[in-house]
Amino acid sequence: MIVLTKMSREKFLVNHYQIECIETIPETRIVMMNHDYYLVRESVEEVIQKIVEYNAKVMDLRREISVADRRK
C-alpha cells in the first residue's frame, strides 16, 4: 500500500492494486476499481514513483528471505 495526501492534507493508504486509472483534472484523481475516487496532492508522476518504489521494496524483501537448499 502507498501513502497519499488528500487535498485536506490528510494522509491515507491506498492499495495500489485496486487503482483503475489516474487522471489529471488539474488535480490528480485516483479512480479505484469500485469507481470511488480520491483527489490527491501528489502529481501523477509522484504516484507512479510511489508505486514503483513500493513494488521494488516488496521484491527486495522477497528476494532477501528466500532460502536455497544447495545440498546434494
Strand content: 25-35%
Distance between the termini: 40 Å
Enumerate the strands of the largest sheet in spatial order, edge to edge or round the barrel.
3-4-5
Give me the number of helical elements.
Answer: 1
Structural class: alpha+beta
Tell the overall outline.
Answer: elongated
Task: Tell me the major beta sheet.
Answer: 3 strands, antiparallel
Strand elements, count: 5
Please tag this protein with its features.
72 residues, single chain, elongated, alpha+beta, 1 helix, three-stranded antiparallel sheet
What report would you give on this structure?
7% of the residues are buried. The longest helix has 22 residues, at 44-65. Strand 3 (19-24) and strand 4 form a beta hairpin. The chain has one helix at 44-65; strands spanning 2-5, 11-14, 19-24, 28-32, 37-40. It is 31% helix and 32% strand. The protein is α+β, with helices and mostly antiparallel strands and 72 residues long. The chain has a 3-stranded antiparallel sheet with strand order 3-4-5, with no helix packed on it. A two-stranded antiparallel sheet has the order 1-2.
Write the layout of secondary structure elements.
Layout: E1 2-5, E2 11-14, E3 19-24, E4 28-32, E5 37-40, H1 44-65
Antiparallel strand pairs: 1-2, 3-4, 4-5
In short:
It contains one helix and five strands. It is an alpha+beta fold.
